């Protein structure tokens, strides 16, 4: 087991460096000069400009800047951004609300996705199954931002059940609608995965044996069908945490939430390269970590899988 | 029948059992072979698909979307940019089927003309993804060794990058954005799944006997790859590509909505949704029609992918 974790961690290293280098390169290549933009129309005095360039290592070659960035990441001190605000503060302030939003979305999509998927899979081809399938296709087809508007109009404005936007320091209630919107597409995928998987497991020999030895329907479902069907679903959910956090760019924009998405978008527009790369790096790390946890969960779900 | 009940082995003078001609209706066998087309994967799939209503619904939607994007002028009632500020936010009526926008543009005509942008980006991006991902996956799977290691790690890296985020960064690099550029950017981060699918298929075919036979007959590496390995990957790639087309259409609309996809001058659903956002309270239909058109188009492609997958998968066929 430890050996397996160690090997997986080793595999993570090239992905981590590759992804950060790629993002750093992309941001570095952006046209426009953030330092020149600081001065506005009149421009900065040459001495000040030179000093700022010196401070941010902007005169040095690309690879040196990347190494400075890596040093910053590993020492958890990325220095100030162009406005003097420490980058680390910006990043740390942005994450809690997005994390809360993503976890809420993850909970919604897991509970409803697996729930509906299980029932649909057990009744494959019946009316409930077909209805749920059509709904899941609709959920996938309607883009997140359109779904956001529809829910704002219906739940927020017309029915007045939930707050239309979240704003600063949102509470659970005001994050509920954004979380539902964020969860939508993934929920449809989880539902479909669970449905297919359950329908397939139902025909397996061990399920027939379980029935034959006299287990009740509920026991067969929870112990034998569901547990065996969940592996592809868990894989998807693990990979989805990272997607949800990145996908919040759109959702946070619609609901006016001050999280990773908003900060990231603002930093891209303002040319705060270090902030952009720092946030992306954290997203990539979350993604990699979630996938690692999922791989380890396989052994829990399926006794046939053992990591020697 | 009873007289040769025990006759199992070869008869004298023969090294294997041959049924006596009078017992086998040779003509009947020939007739079967002539009447029924050989049962191929695609033939079976086609027969399966034809019988499903969802296939025809999806086909209708896709055909309509393609037709409208090629010949918008035949369906629209007026020019999409022919707007009259005096007619701002009119309700739906005989002159304007879906009403007008805040700027007094005819929503119906804009929805019709907006199809082209979405369909173009979707089709181009899918084509790029199939070419790029297919090539990388095929090379990784077929060549193997260190080439495979490098290409697979590269795939992991691109897979780990958040798709929307990467697209935003790259698109903000480009001063001059058009459908081609947006499609290229979407494709440059969306190829990983196709690469994995192709690599898997190529690997599973590589050591088959018919590949060995082709090698023995002197077929070149590229020939084997094109003639034997890639056709095996075609079915999963087509299924994935159909669904991906839908998701690329969504991605383009999302990026245009965020203001970094297609430029404001292009008539597109994403752009119209972005403009309509201001009128969400007074006139929700400004958002509803382009949103519905977008969702319907995506639905068509996703449904088609679904039907094709079910048809190609023999396990899913027996319900």
The CATH topology of chain B comes to MetI-like fold
User: CA-to-CA gap between the ends of chain B?
Assistant: 38 Å
The backbone outline of chain B, from C-alpha atoms, is flat
β-strand amount of chain B: under 5%
Uncertain stretches of 5 or more adjacent residues of chain B: none
- Average of pLDDT of chain A: 81
What is the helix content of chain A? over 70%
Instruction: Just name the CATH architecture of chain B.
Output: Orthogonal Bundle
Work out the largest interface and the residue count of each chain.
Answer: A-B, 46 and 41 residues
Average pLDDT of chain B works out at: 80
Structural class of the helix and strand makeup of chain B? mainly alpha
Based on the structure, what is the oligomeric state of the protein chains?
heterodimer
Radius of gyration of chain B: 27 Å
Per DSSP E runs of 2 or more residues, the count of β-strands of chain B stands at: 0
What's the CATH C level of chain B?
A: Mainly Alpha
């Amino acid at each position: 087991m430890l050996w397996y974790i160690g090997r997986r961690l080793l595999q993570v290293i090239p992905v981590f460096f590759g992804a950060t280098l790629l993002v750093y390169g992309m941001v570095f290549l952006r046209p426009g000069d953030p330092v020149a933009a600081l001065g506005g129309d009149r421009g900065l005095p040459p001495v000040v400009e030179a000093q700022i360039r010196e401070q941010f290592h902007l005169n040095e070659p690309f690879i040196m800047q990347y190494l400075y960035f890596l040093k910053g990441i590993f020492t958890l001190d990325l220095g100030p951004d162009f406005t003097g605000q420490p980058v680390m503060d910006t990043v740390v302030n942005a994450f809690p609300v997005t994390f809360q939003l993503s976890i809420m979305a993850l909970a919604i999509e897991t509970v409803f996705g697996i729930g509906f998927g299980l029932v649909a899979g057990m009744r494959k081809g019946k009316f409930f199954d077909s209805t749920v399938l059509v709904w899941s296709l609709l959920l996938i087809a309607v883009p997140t931002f359109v779904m956001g508007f529809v829910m704002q109009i219906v739940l927020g404005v017309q029915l007045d059940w939930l707050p239309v936007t979240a704003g600063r320091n949102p509470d659970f209630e005001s994050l509920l609608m954004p979380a539902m919107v964020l969860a939508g597409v993934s929920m449809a995928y989880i539902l479909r995965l669970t449905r297919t998987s359950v329908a397939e497991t139902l025909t397996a020999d061990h399920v027939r044996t379980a029935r034959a030895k006299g287990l009740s329907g509920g026991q067969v479902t929870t112990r034998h069908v569901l547990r065996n069907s969940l592996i592809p679903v868990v894989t998807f959910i693990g990979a989805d945490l990272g997607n949800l956090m990145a996908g919040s760019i759109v959702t946070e924009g619609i609901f006016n939430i001050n999280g990773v998405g908003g900060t990231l978008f603002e930093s891209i527009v303002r040319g705060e390269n270090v902030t952009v790369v720092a946030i992306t790096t954290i997203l990539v790390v979350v993604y990699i970590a979630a996938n690692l946890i999922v791989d380890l969960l396989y052994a829990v779900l399926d006794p046939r899988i053992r990591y020697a | 029948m009873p007289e040769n009940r025990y006759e199992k082995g070869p008869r004298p003078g023969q090294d294997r059992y041959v049924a006596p001609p009078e017992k086998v209706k040779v003509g009947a066998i020939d007739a079967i072979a002539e009447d029924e087309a050989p049962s191929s994967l695609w033939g079976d799939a086609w027969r399966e698909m034809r019988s499903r209503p969802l296939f025809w619904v999806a086909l209708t939607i896709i055909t309509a979307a393609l037709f409208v994007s090629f010949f918008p002028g035949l369906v629209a009632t007026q020019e999409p940019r022919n707007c009259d500020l005096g007619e701002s936010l009119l309700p739906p009526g005989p002159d304007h089927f879906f009403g007008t926008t805040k700027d007094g543009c005819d929503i119906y005509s804009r929805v019709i003309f907006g199809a082209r942008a979405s369909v173009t980006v979707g089709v181009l991006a899918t084509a790029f993804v199939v070419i790029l991902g297919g090539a990388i996956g095929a090379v990784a799977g077929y060549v193997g060794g260190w080439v495979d290691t490098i290409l697979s790690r590269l795939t992991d890296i691109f897979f780990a990058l958040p798709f929307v985020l990467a697209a935003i960064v790259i698109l903000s690099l480009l001063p001059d954005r058009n459908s081609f550029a947006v499609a290229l950017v979407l494709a440059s981060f969306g190829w990983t799944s196709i690469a994995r699918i192709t690599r898997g298929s190529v690997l599973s075919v590589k050591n088959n006997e018919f590949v060995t036979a082709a090698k023995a007959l002197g077929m070149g590496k590229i020939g084997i790859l094109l003639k034997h390995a890639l056709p095996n990957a075609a079915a999963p790639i087509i299924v994935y590509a159909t669904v991906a087309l839908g998701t690329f259409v969504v991605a383009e609309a999302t990026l245009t909505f965020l203001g970094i996809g297609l430029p404001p001058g292009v008539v597109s659903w994403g752009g119209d949704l972005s403009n309509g956002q201001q009128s969400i309270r007074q006139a929700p239909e400004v958002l509803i029609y382009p949103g519905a058109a977008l969702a319907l188009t995506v639905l068509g492609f996703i449904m088609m992918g679904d039907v094709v997958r079910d048809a190609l998968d023999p396990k899913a066929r027996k319900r």
